[in-house]
Amino acid sequence: MSAVKNVLKDNYNMMLLKDYLREKIKDAGFSDVEISKTPVGTRIALHVTRPGIVIGRKGSGIRELTEVLGTKFGLKNPQISVVEIAKPELSPNVMCNRLASHIERGTAFRRATMWTLQQIMENGAMGVQITISGKLRGDRSAFEKHSVGILPRAGHHAEVIVAEDIAHVKTPMGLIGIRIRIAIKEKLIPEFEFKDKSKKAKQKQKEEIIVKVTADKPVSTIKVETEAERNARTESEQIELEAKKIATLETLEEEEEKFKA
Predict the structure, then answer these.
(1) Which of 7, 112, 189, 257 has its CA 20 to 30 A from that of 231?
(2) What are the backbone dihedrals phi and psi of residue 215, each rounded to the nearest 5 degrees, phi first?
(3) Cα(200)–Cα(179) distance, rounded to whole angstroms?
(4) The pLDDT of residue 217 is above 50
(5) Which of residues 49, 67, 85 is at a domain's end?
(6) What is the domain range of residue 69?
């Protein structure tokens, strides 16, 4: 077999493996997988938001996954390691899956897109672009592109700074494609460093908004609104918590109706 066929076969197998892991450990917030071959076997690094779900009780999840990867995908002596993602909102893979889950649950695509844009930018992204295409409103296919912040489109800086991923979701109207591109500040080259002078002021203002003090509770019992999100055990619980907040967002159509009234 030629070298070209070997490359195509490896890429095809990697695509099948990612599709399987995306569905198998969906509740763990699967982001990416890295595979490297060693003389001893195959080293597999899984990047997820909740490692405990992948590991399972007393390592039962890891053992089951190791057996499947060895038999179904033909990996020799797979050795799995789990890597936790520090900021899931800056991972396009995770956010693609979350946006797809919201649309699959029946949330309006534009409302879910605006929520995803907001979550990504609030967690420190330099810029984000979300493209959603398919039968969004009627029988004809269409696409919408939403961008916020600074997002390099081409050149070396775009390759270094921007990370992207694509996901698909099945709806009663048909298949919808989602593409998210995120520019991350930490990857900026020093000469192009992005300086946000009002970062501390914005953070202080944000804390003042989300912290609620009541007269009948002492200061020690104050809790921020995001505590429920931090305690979400699975991605499904995270989606349910976000769906309640997405329902409170106002779309452009709703604002136009208010002005007409």
Answers:
(1) 112
(2) -70, -30
(3) 31
(4) no
(5) 85
(6) 3-85
Distance CA 113, CA 182 (A): 14
At which residue do the structure tokens 């979300």 appear?
Answer: 130
The angle at the Cα of 190, spanning 197 to 187, to the nearest 5 degrees, equals 90
Are 23 and 104 within one domain? no
Residue 127, judged by CB atoms within 10 A of its CB (0-12, 13-18, 19+), counts as: buried
- Torsion angle, CA of 85/88/78/24, rounded to 10 degrees? 150
Question: Residue 181's pLDDT is what?
Answer: 93
Q: Residue 105 falls within a domain, yes or no?
A: yes
Residue entry with tokens 């429920």: 228
Q: What is the pLDDT of residue 250?
A: 65
Helix (H) or strand (E) holding 45: strand 42-48
The pair of three-digit structure tokens given for residue 109, joined into one six-digit string: 């695509």
Backbone angles phi, psi at 254, to 5 degrees: -65, -40
Q: What SS3 state is found at 171?
A: strand
pTM listed for this prediction: 0.70
Amino acid identity of residue 138, one-letter, is: G
Spell out a b/e string for 63-75, using b for 16 or more CB atoms within 10 Å of the CB, else e: eebbeebeeeeeb
Sheet strands side by side (includes 142-149): 142-149, 125-134, 174-184, 162-171
Task: Indicate the DSSP class of residue 44.
Answer: E
The DSSP symbol for 57 reads G
Torsion of CA 185, 190, 195, 199, to 10 degrees: 50
Between CA 62 and CA 48 the distance in angstroms is 13
The predicted-structure confidence for 32-44, as pLDDT tens digits, reads as follows: 888 888 888 888 8
Which domain CATH number covers 163?
3.30.1140.32
